[in-house]
Amino acid sequence: MARDRRPGLGFGRWALIAFAGAFLALFLVAPLAIVFEAALAKGVVAYGDALAAPDAVAAIELTLLVAAIAVPLNTVFGLAASWCIAKFEFTGKSVLTTLIDLPFAVSPVISGMVYVLLFGAQGLLAPVLAAHGLKIVFAVPGLVLATVFVTFPFVARQLIPLMQGQGTGEEEAALVLGASFWQIVRRVTLPNIRWGLLYGVLLCNARAMGEFGAVSVVSGRIRGLTDTMPLYIEALYNEYDMVGAFAVASLLALLAVATLVVKSLFELRYREDVAPLTQPARV
Amino acid sequence: MQIALAQHDGRAARRSVIPGFGATLGIALLYLTLIVLIPLAALVLAAAGPGIAGVLATLADPRVAAAFRVSFGIAFAAALINGAVGLVVAWVLVRYRFPGRRLLDGLVDLPFALPTAVAGIALAALYADTGWVGGFFARFGIDIAFTPRGILVALVFIGLPFVVRTVQPILADLEHEAEEAALTLGATRLQIFFRVVLPALLPGVLTGMSLAFARGLGEYGSVIFVAGNMPGLSEIVPLLIVIKLDQFDYAGAAIIGVAMLVASFAILLALNLGQFLMRRRHGA
C-alpha cells in the first residue's frame, strides 16, 4: 500500500471514509435497524402475536407457495436458455439474450399490469376465461405470473456467462465416451455450474418473496387469500398497525440480510462463478 | 477433442455435436413468448386502442404530465446524488483499507435484497417528523417524508448500488502508473483526481447513474409509503398507473405504461450508444 504513505493523505482519507460510512449508516443501516426497533416496540409478546395472527400466517404461506412455484419455473427456464445460448451458435442469439433481460427494464407495476390487460375483467382474454369459469387475475395464478415475470432473468443471466466461459469441451468428451444427454447434464454440466446456479436461485427467491409492485396490481387484496407478505405489510401499515406491519417486515428483512450474507460468502469463495447484479441491460 | 471434431466436420465447424439444442431453445422461446412477449404485446395493443388522438389526450392530461415531471425530475436528481456519493463510496471501498470495510461493501447491495415495501415503511418511519432522521430536520422546519423530498430519499436508497457496483471494478482495474506519473510531474492530489482518475471513471459513473435513473423511474414500493402521493406534487407515474387500473381505465394505464417503457428503453439505448462512441473514441 505504498500510496497510503504519501504525505498529507491521512486526513482526506479518513474524511472520505467517515463520509461514506455515515452516508451508508444513514441510508442503509438505519432503515434496517428501524424495522426491528418498530417491530419490537411493544415487546416480544406483541411481536409474536402479530406473527401468529391467522392472516399473517396465511400471508406467509401464500408467499412461500408463490415462490415455490415461480422459482423452479424460472430455474428450469434459466437452465434451458443458458444451455442453448452458451453451448450453441445460432442466428438471433443476441436478440434472445436481450429479450431475456427485458423484464429488468420494466417497472414492477407494468409487470403486473400486462396480466391485468390480458386476464382482467375487461382484458383481452376475459371472454375465454369467463366461458371456462377461470380466474387468473385477483387470484393466486395472477400472483404467480407477476412474480415469474419480475424474477424471469435472475437464473438465466447468472448461468449464461458462466456456461459460456466453461465452453463445451467437457460435454464433448462425455459424449464421445458414450454419455446420453441427461447423463451429460447430470454428471458434467450441473456439477460445473452448481454454485452459479445456487446463487441465481438465491437471488431469484429473495426477489420473488419480496416483490410488491407487480403483485399489488394483480392481487385482489383479499386478506388471508390473495395478500402475500409485502401486500399484507401495506394493509397493516395503512391501518396504523405498526407493530404488525413491522413484525411481518422484519421477517422479510431477515431474509434480505441472510441473502446478503450468503451472497457475500459466494462472492468471496466462488468469484469466478457469479456475475454481478448490475450488468447493464443490453438493448 | 474440440479440434478433432472440428476437423472431422470442417464444413460446419461451428455446428455442435452436443445434444439438446432444439429442446432447450424450444423451451426457452415458448416460455419467453408466454410470460414476457405476449403480455407486453397485450400492453401495446391496449395502448393503441384509443388511437393517436386518445394517446395524446391521455398524455396531455395535466395530472399525467405532472406525474411524468415528478418521476423524471426526482429520478434525475436522485441519479445525480447517487453519481457523486456512489463515486465516493466506491473510491473508499476500493482504495482504502479500514476496519469494517467488508461489512460496508456487503451492505451496499441491501437495496437490491430488501423488499421495496419493507424499505418504504422503514424510510417513512425514519424520515417522518417523529422519526430518527426526520425529527432532526423537522427542528429546522424541513419536512422530508410525505413530500417530494421523501421520493428523493427513496430513490437515492434504491439507486445507490448501481453506481457503486459499476464504478468499483473499473477503479480496481485502474493502473496506478498514470497517477504516479502525474505525481512525479508535480500534480497535486486534486489535479490527479480530476485530470487522471475521474476521466477514466466517468463512463462507469454515467452508466451507473443511467441504470439508477431507469430503476428510479419505475420504482413503486419504496416510494409510495414516503411520497405523500399528492396529485400534481408528489404523485409518481407508476402510482398513477395503479390508480387508472383501479378505476378500470385500462387504456389510460396502458398508454402511460408504454410511454414509460419507451422512455426507459431510450435511456438504455442512449447508454449503449454512448458507451459505443466512448470506446471508439478511445480506440479500444
Summarize this entry quickly:
The complex is a heterodimer of chains A (283) and B (284). Chain A contains 13 helices and no strands.
Low-confidence stretches of chain B: 1-13
How many domains of chain B? 2
What percent strand of chain B? under 5%
What is the name of the CATH topology of the largest domain in chain B? MetI-like fold
Helix content of chain A: over 70%
* Termini gap of chain A: 40 Å
By CATH, the superfamily of the largest domain in chain B comes out as MetI-like
Order of helices and strands of chain A: HHHHHHHHHHHHH
Most residues in contact, chain pair and counts: A-B, 110 and 108 residues
Assigned CATH class of the largest domain in chain A: Mainly Alpha
Nearest-integer average pLDDT of chain B? 88
How much of the sequence of chain A is in beta strands?
Answer: under 5%
| Share of residues in helices of chain B | over 70%
Q: State the low-pLDDT regions of chain A, or none.
A: 1-8, 279-283
